[in-house]
Structure formats: structure tokens, C-alpha cells
Amino acid sequence: MRTNVSLLAALLWFATLAGATQTSPVAKNADADVTRYTLPNGLRVIIVPNHLAPVVTVEENYLVGGDETPTGFPGMAHAQEHMAFRGCANLSADQIAAIFAQMGGDNDADTEQNITQYYETVPDQDLDIALHADSDCMRNIVNSQEQWEQERGAIEQEVARDLSSPIYKFIVRMNEDMFAGTTYEHDPLGTKESFDATTGAMLKKFQETWYAPNNAVLIITGQVDPEKTIAKIKELYSDIPKKELPSRPEVRLQPVKSEHISLPSDYPYTISIIGYRMPGTDSPDFAAFRILADVLASERGDIFGLGAEGKALEAGFDVAETYPKAGAAIAYAVIPSTDDPAKIQQSLKSIIANYVKNGLPSDLVEAAKRSEVAAFEFERNSIPGMATLWSQAVAAEGRKAPQEDVEAIRRVTVDDVNRVARKYLVDSNAVTGTLVPQPSGAPVASKGFGGSEKVTPTATKPVPLPKWADALSKPLEVPKWDLHPVTMNLPNGIELIVESSHLTPTVTVMGEVRHQPDLQVPQGQEGISGVLGDLFSYGTTTLDRLAFQKALDDIAANESPGTSFSLQVLKPYFDRGMQLLAENELQPALPPDAFKIVQQQATDSVAGLLKSPDYRAQRRLLEGLMPAHDPTLREPSPKTVSSLTLDDVKKYYATIFRPDLTKMVIIGDVTPEEAKAEVLHWFGNWKAEGSKPDVDLPAVPPNEASAAQVPDPTRIQDEVTLAEELPMNRFDPQYYPLQLANHILGGGFYATRLYRDLREKTGYVYNVSIGLDTTRTRARLTASYGADPANVPKARALLLQDIKDLQTTPPSEGEMQQAVAMLLREIPLAQASESSIGEGLLARVLIGVPLDEPVLAAAKYKSLTAEEVRAAFAKWVRPSDFVEVVQGPPPK
């Protein structure tokens, strides 16, 4: 499920395009160039051009979800979403998978309570192909019983995965109490029992009832020609008939069943939660609720203060559910497992009661409103983000445009926020909960969890594509490099990269001080890096914690300090934002009182962490991979953290924070000259002292095989990780054939070997991944999947079989073409948002490859032969030497 974004947009007004009919005009926005059109069959189309990159996002929204599912079958809409990938009117499952894989593999779907969304981000040249595929599935979805029996295993694994999450289990129970007797009481994810009773015929009936053009909204954002796109949509969708839609279930809310829910958890700490039923998107109180939630979550607020003052490890307030007729929000506090959850829950209640009685601070209300308005400008820097924004506003909330939300937010007053708080933040409207940690037992060594499983050969012939997708089979060209980064080395050693993008009046800064705690932390001070990181939030030498956060709130900026740092700020406040970032990085307060708080929190956190299943699984994996005494095997303990002094922290800060190890990327509405001037102004006096340290870990030899099972009493599904160290690094020429091999094995849904064998054919898993992580000195191959205990050995056997097959038999011509297509088309897709552009530039400068390395790599991928890929995989990958760790119940 995707998280709802702040619902803000640019002003709309309409003008009729030449050639459009009077009854269904094409309407355009003179400012944002938004185009609307409604086909005679009822399909609504909204096109929002965005010229950040040669990329388009298509989001097809069906106005049906968990609300409309039959009684006893809460996951019917979710199951139908899955089946859309199993075959449509004129497309087989293999064709759907191959088409989207070759367009870059960035496609997915999700089901919510009142909406089902299918979305893909593709190169702009492939927009027509994406629309062809989507329209085919609007016509018909096969929904055969045979296909459903194969997909049922995968969707049940998705349910098992979520039911292994303590937070998810609490939300499910909370919704049953808050929304009893309504469609909201059942999560649209569904249940294993209902899926076992579902048939292909039932799914076919559901699809024929609800999948109709007059029950859909098509949102398209990105580098798109609106008139040509409307013409193509008419061609592809106009002959799909509209349908008579049934009435929708009525939501009649009953009083909340106020109870306390206690659940076991595999987290290393206790979480105390208070959930409140809140207004839904249809309510006139919704905008005030959003501002109320922002105020209660503010870092200047009293709830957050529980963590800052040492009364909790962390505390906050968040929106949990957003439905048309109701919503839910939670206040939470994280405490050590040895503390009393009733006490911290009472503290949360007292804070909220005080706000209800005395009112919310007016300055926090205004700060929240500024932040919501600024959030839209930041969201416009993302092509997929804009598609989500419009889909949520128009399809999920029933607005005409996101502007309705921003105008509603602007109208919110302090009195509105206080009225909503008094109405909804009451005990009779609440459900409380406690997630109680269940420590893991020690990892159990094993001889492995292998099994035998036979499938058909995976090196298959190319999938024949329909004629309208012929372009995907043509020889691939290396994508044009559309970025123009300017690199500057400043006198103090900072390496600055600037990418100008004048799409919105915003600037994003991201950077990192290259460091390696495993090498740089003094012996006996393990854990000091985390303590220092947490102290940055306590302000600067000139502004204390609250004053510093107010300064950020005043300019609606988002800032994150530390060795990895970032800033998002509106262009008019760029100078002030850079000043605050520099002060936080170079002049952190590191106050003694805060040090005592953070030190105690870190001591308590480490004590719980060392017993947790997640940590023990990660630790066991690392111990299997690393040679004895490797620096990465160092770990903190309550003793090392509690023995730290503030002087230790200050000395460590002085050691690792150096300009000559700092890389910084600035992207947005700024010229290279402006960016350089700002960095020099605020960071120019920062000087390095002493010789530059070596922050690269030493190379390691290949590991030996081992296996272990880490008990996790709260999970019903096993999480399986197989990994091995490869004696190479990022600069080895064979990095490229190995990456191509991984794209043949995974990453393309049903189009790649692992997904076909472990999910499509057998339903053993919901997700499976394989990837190569490389640094300047090391490389690790990791595969992972989640499966029921009985299927762990079977899935493992198939995974290893696919790896061995690729080592002995060169991939087919079709597989090579598809993998190269995925890699090449991923290049423009990685430029679909300013944040992803900045992250890519920063990652490349940190590791030390050229900034245009993606297009240099593209040429290498194109030149590789199938035999070179096979030979590289055979040389470097050792199927018998994986370190395997299973977290959860013992495999069967």
C-alpha cells in the first residue's frame, strides 16, 4: 500500500481546445497546462505535463476496492488486482511481463479501501505501448481457475508477510474495533481463508461488474504531448462499453469499541499506541484533521518532546488510515522493554488531553499550513509523485483537482483545529495497544534447508509480442544523457556537484561525509557513532533544539543533519536554509544534558537490540560472511555505550567531520554560480586538520558455506537470506556482466527466471530478489525471499537451480535483449524525480565513478555476449558457498 501524499496542486482554470466537442471539451490549465477529457463511455482522463525527464507515468484508477468486495471475501479486489498481471483480453501473462520488463520494469499496482490502482513509469517513447496494455486489461481479464490456482499461493504469501508485522497486526485489530459493522473493519489485503474459498468464476464476476471505463480515472504525468495522447486514448479506449454500476455499500459508523490490544512483537523495544477514529476525506473537518495531525507530530510539540526529554526512546503522531467516511490516527511512544507501558501511555493521554483543554499552539498551526503548501512544490519535482498526487485527490477523494485540498488547508483556522481536537481526541473514540517484545533465542546452526524441486527449463524462447509493441524488439540505442551536472572542487576540499532544474522554485541539497565507523571508532567506544547522530537534533551553539526547529518551520524547510545530510527548501529561502544546515553540521550544540539523555536511550536501545530476531539474523549472516576480526564484526554493547563521555563524542566528531571527505549535490532552481557562492559562504571556513584517514574497508576473502535458523516467535512466514562475498569490487570490469545476469534472474516480475519459477509457476513466494552490492573494496551477492516454512526448502532449491542453470548454459537471445532493455530504460527512469537524480549523482561521486556512468555502462551492456554473461556468473558465483539465514519458524 502506498502512503498518501500531501494533497496540494497548482491553480486550475479551463479553456477549450480547437477540435474538441462541446459536450466533452478538452480543457487546459493556463498555468500548469493540465488537460482534461472525458470519453463518451465515461472514462475520465487528466494529463499533467512535466518536462523534468523523458519519462511518463500512467496511473489507471478503478473506483473499486475493499469496500465493494462480497461479504466474507475482503480480499476480492486485491485478488483481482493480482490477476490483471496473469492475462488480459489479448495479452498473455508472459506478454504483459515481457512488455513492462522491457520498458524498464517500473510498474505495479495496489488495492485500497475504495480504489484499485495500476501504475507504471516508462520512457516517453513507450507511452503508446503502455496505454495499449492498460486498455487491453480494461476490456477483459482472463481470470481462469487455472491461473488463479497458481496466483493464490503468491497472494497468500503476501498476507503471511504482512501478518508477520506487529504494526500491521495491530492496525488490523484496531480497525475491527473502530469500524465494526462497516466495510472498513476488514483490510482489503484479504485473508488466507477467503482466498482458499475464492474461485476464478467469482473473480470474473467481480471484474465484469466493476472494471468499466465509467468507473475509472486515467492520470498521465510527465513529458507528454496532451493532444496526441488524447487522440491515442480515444483510439484505444473509446470502443470499451460503459457498464451499469451497482450501488455501493453504505458506511454507517457505530461507536468505537474501546479496548486495549496487547500483541507480541519481534521489535527490540515496547511500543505503546493510542489510536483515534478521525474524520474521513468526505468530511468538512478533513483539512483541519490534517493540520491537527501535523501539529501533534511537530518536533516542537509535546509528544515528540517525550523522546527529546528522555521519557521515551521515540514518540510521535501519525495518520494510519484515510477513508472517505472516516480515518484513523495513532499517537505512539517507544520505550525500553523493561519500562512500564501503562506509564508512558498515560503521558501520551495527558499531553493530548492538555492540548484538547487548552488548545493547539497557533504558531504550530501556521507552521503546519506553510509546510503543507510547500510540500506541493517539492512533490512537483517528481513525475510519479504528481501522478500519485492527482490520483489520490481525484480518484480516491473525489475532488476535481488537488487544488481543492490546498484551498481547504489555507482556510483552516486555529479554532477549526481545536474544534476537531475536542471532537475526536477523546477516550471514547480511542483504541489502545501495546506491542510487547519477544526476544529471539540464539541462532541455531544447521546443515542447511535444501530440498529438491524440478521445474521446466528457464532459458525460454523470446515471448512473441503484439505488433503494437514491435518497437520494444528493435535494436536498442544508448539513452541520451540529459543531465548537465557541474562539478567544482572547493578550496577546503568539498566536492560540489550542481544540477540546475528550474521546474519549480525549490532547491534540494544532499551530501555525505565519507567515513567508516568500523575503522574510525576507538576501541571500547562502539556505539558512539549513533550517539553523535542523535545529538544533532538538539540544535546548534546559537539555537537550541526548539529555536532551531522554529527557524526551519519559519521557512517550511526540511533538514536532516549528520554524516549523511540533506535540505529541501523553497528558492527564496535558499540562503537561510543553507545557513541553518551549515550551523547544524559545523556547530552542533552537543549539550551535556542532551548527551545524558541520548546516552541512556542508546544504552537501553542496544540492550533490546542485541536480543531481537532482526539483529540476531543480521549478525549471524555477517558472522558467516566475514573473516574473524573483520572491522564490521565490531558491535556496541550497553557497557561500551554507557561508558562514553561527552569529550569522547566531541573528539569523534572532530575526527570524522572533514570537508576533504565531503561530497555535496545541489539540484533545483539554482545556477552553479549561486550554489557555489552559498556553499563557500556557509561552509567555506570549514577546515580539515591532520592527514586524511583511510575510510575504505579492507578486501575480504571468499566465505565458506554455513546455515542458521533464528527463532522469531511472532512470525508466521520465514524470511530467508542467502549471501556470499565475491573477491572483487565495484571497479572490476566483470561488474557489468554480473549485473546483466542479475537482471536475467530477477527484477522483471514474471518476465525473469526467479519470479517465473518461485512465484508464477509455484506460488511459493510473493517477492524474491537478487542483487550485487559493491563498494570500493568489496562485493556481496544477496538473494532473499519470504515463504511459509514448508516451502522454504522448495523455493531455495529452485533459486539455486536457476543460478546453476545460468552458470552452465548461456542465456537465450530473448533474455539478453530483455535484460539489456531493462538496464538501458532504467537510465531515464532514474531521472523521474529531482531526488532520484540527486541520489544518483551523489552515489556515483561517493564511490568514484564518472557522473555519466549510466550511459557508459549502457554501452558495455549492449556489447556483452550471452557467453560472457554465463562465464562471469560461473567464475564469480559459488552456489555451494552461500551463507543462509532463516528468520522465523523452523523450515519443514
User: Could you name the ranges where pLDDT drops below 50 across 5 or more consecutive residues?
Assistant: 1-31
- Beta strands, count: 24
Can you give the helix content as a percent range? 40-55%
Structural category is alpha+beta
Tally of contiguous helical segments = 31
Overall outline: globular
* Averaged pLDDT: 93
Distance between the termini: 31 Å
Q: Biggest sheet, open or closed, and with what strands and sense?
A: 7 strands, mixed
* Strand fraction: 15-25%
Strand order of the largest sheet: 1-2-3-7-4-6-5
Rg, Cα atoms, Å:
27 Å
Structure description:
- By secondary structure, the chain is an alpha+beta fold.
- Helix content is 41%, strand content 17%.
- It has 31 helices and 24 strands.
- The strands form four sheets. A seven-stranded mixed sheet has the order 1-2-3-7-4-6-5, with helices on both faces. The chain has a six-stranded mixed sheet with strand order 13-20-24-21-23-22, with helices on both faces.
- Strand 17 and strand 18 form a beta hairpin.
- Helix 9 (286-297) crosses helix 15 and helix 17 (528-535) packs across helix 20.
- The longest helix is centred in the first third of the chain and has 18 residues, at 145-162.
- The chain is globular.
- The protein starts with 26 loop residues before the first strand and ends in a 5-residue tail after the last strand.
- The model is unreliable at 1-31 (pLDDT under 50).
